[in-house]
Amino acid sequence: MALSTVFVALFIFALVLLVFAPIMTWVERKQSALMQDRIGANRANIAGITVLGLIHPLADVIKMITKEDTMPDGAHRFVHLISPFIAVAPAIISFAVIPYGGTYEMWGAKFTLCVADLDYGVLFLFAIGSIATYGSMLAGWAGNNNFGMLGSIRVSAQMISYEVTMGISVVALFMIFGTLRLTEMGLAQQETFRVFGFMEHLGWVARDTGWVNAITLPMWGILLQPLAFFMFLTALMAENKRAPFDTPEGESEIVAGYFIEYSGMKFGLYMMGEWIEVVVISALLTAMFLGGWALPWLSDKALIDFLLPRFGANIANLMAMVLGVSVFLGKVVALIFFQMLIRWSMPRFRYDQVMNLGWKILLPLSLANIVVTAIGILIVQEVVAK
Amino acid sequence: MRMALFWIFSVAALGSAVGVVGNVRNPINSALNLVVSMLALAGLYVLLEAQFIGLIQVMVYAGAIVVLFLFVIMLLNLRGSGAPNAETQPLVKLAGTALVAGGSYFLVRVLATGRAPWPDVDPDYGTTRAIGEALYGDYVLAVQVAGVLLLAGIIAAVVLAKKRLE
C-alpha cells in the first residue's frame, strides 16, 4: 500500500477514535440515566447551550487536566508515571489492524480502509492486548497502597485467565474462514450460504429446488459460530475489566482498586483506555462476527457492479466507501449500546465467580467448540465433495 | 531503515538484559527490564520475517509469563528485600565476570566480521500459513509428542499443587 493511502486510512481512524472516546462518557451517562429513569448529564453549558449534555465531556477533560497531579509517598516514581500510558496505548494501537471498509479504487489511487492489513491481524490484537495487562497491574503496585495492590493482583489473575479463553474461543472461527487477516474475514462474510442446502445433499429435495436456493443467510461469524461470539464477547469484556467483571476496581471492597492512587488526567487515561477498549471490542466483533463493513446479502462486488453504470467508477467507489464506513460505524454503535446495556443491568460478579466462569465454563466450552467445529467442517467438506 | 531498526532493537534487548541481572535491589525492576528485552526480541524476529514467532513471543513471554513473574513477586511482596547476598559471594562475582567477558568477546568478534548482507528470504517464510503447514503437515508427529509431554506436565503440576490426594 502506498504511503499516502496509509495516511488517509490513519486520518479517518484517528478521527473516528478520538471523536468516539469523549462521546462515550456522554453515552454512558445518558444511557444509564435512561435505564434508571433519570435525566442524566444536562448542566454543563457554554452560554446556556447544553446540546443534550454533550458539553459534559469537554468539562470533564478541563477538570481532569487542571486537577493536581499527586504522587503518593513511597511510590515507584517511574512506574507510577508510565503505567497510565501503558494502559491506554495498546487500546489505541489495536485499532490499526481493524478494517472499517473494503478496498476502493478511485481517481487512480487504491484505498484499503485498514491502517495495517496484516497477515496475522487477530494475533497482533491478542499480542497487543496482552501488553495492556501491565498498565493496570503496575499501577496498583507502584502507588504503594494496599488496596491498589489487591486490585493489581486481581487484575493480573483475571486478565491472564481470560486471555486463554479469548484466544481459544475464536479458533473455530479461524478454522471456518481459514485466515487470520481481518480484511479477508470481512470479505468471506459477504458470501451467503443456503440454509436448507443440506437437504439437497441428503437427497430430500431435488437439486436446484427454487425455495432452497432462495433462502440464504450471509456467512456472518455470529451465524456460523454463535457460541464463539458470546464466549469471545464475554472474554473481551472481562479483559476490559468493566462491570460485571470489575472486581479489580470493586468500589465496595477495595475503594478503586489498581488506580486508587491516580488523580487528574492520569486517572482520566484509565477511564479513556476503558472507553476506547469498548470501541475496539465493538469494532473487532463487527469485523469478525457481524459481517464487517458490508450490509447483509450485499457484497462489495455486487454493490460496485450496481453503482458503476450509474455513476462512473470514481463516484461509485466513493459511494461504496461512504456506505461501507457508515455501515461499520452503525454496527459498532449498536454493539457499544449492547455492552453498556450489559454494564448497567448486571451486578458485579464475585471474584471466585469470575474465575469459575473463565476456567470451568468458558475454557472447556471453547475447547469443545473447536472439536465440534472441526467435525462439522470435515462433514461439510466430505458432503460437498461428493 | 531495517538496519536502523535492527540496531535499536538489539541495543534495547541487550541493554534491558543487563538491566535484568543488574537490578539487585528491586525484583520488579528486573521483571520490567525482562519485558522490554522480550519485546525487543520480538522486534528482531519480525525483522527476520518470522512474524508469527515474533507475535507469539509477545503474547506468551511478554504478555503471560512475565506477568506471572510479576504476579508472584507482588504476591510474595519481595519489594526492597534485597538480593540474596549475590554481592558477597566471590564465586558468583567471578562467574559473572567471566560470562560477561566471554560474551563481549564473541560480540566483538561478530561485529568485526563486518556487515553481512541482510538475508534475502521469501516474504511468505514466516507467515501463519507457512508455520501452520510446517507444524500440522511436515512435523505433525513432533507436535503430537510435544502435546502429550505438555499434558503430562500439566497433570503433574495439578497433582503437586493438590494439597491432599484421596
Explained architecture:
The complex is a heterodimer of chains A (386) and B (166). By secondary structure, chain A is mainly alpha-helical. Chain A has one domain. Helix content of chain A is 67%, strand content 4%. A two-stranded antiparallel ribbon of chain A has the order 1-2. A two-stranded antiparallel sheet of chain A has the order 3-4. In chain A, strand 1 and strand 2 form a beta hairpin. In chain A, helix 5 packs parallel to helix 16 and helix 14 packs across helix 15. The longest helix of chain A has 35 residues. The two termini of chain A are 41 Å apart. The model of chain A has no long low-confidence stretch (mean pLDDT 82). Chain B is globular, with a radius of gyration of 20 Å. Chain B is mainly alpha-helical and 166 residues long. Chain B has 2 domains: 79 residues, Four Helix Bundle (Hemerythrin (Met), subunit A) (Up-down Bundle), CATH 1.20.120.1200; 43 residues. The chains are: A mainly alpha (386), B mainly alpha (166). The interface between A and B is medium-sized, with 28 and 22 residues.
Secondary-structure element order of chain A, N to C: HHHEEHHHHEHHEHHHHHHH
Runs of chain A in which pLDDT lies below 50 for 5 or more consecutive residues are none
Question: Per CATH, what is the topology of the largest domain in chain B?
Answer: Four Helix Bundle (Hemerythrin (Met), subunit A)
Number of discrete helical segments of chain B: 6
The H/E string of chain B reads: HHHHHH
Uncertain runs of chain B with pLDDT below 50, 5 residues or more? Answer: none
Largest interface: A-B, 28 and 22 residues
Shape of chain A: globular
What's the N-to-C terminus distance of chain A? 41 Å
The largest sheet of chain B, given as strand count, sense and whether it forms a barrel, is: none
Question: Distance N terminus to C terminus of chain B?
Answer: 62 Å
Structural class of chain A: mainly alpha
> Into how many domains do the coordinates of chain A divide?
1
What would you call the structural class of chain B? mainly alpha
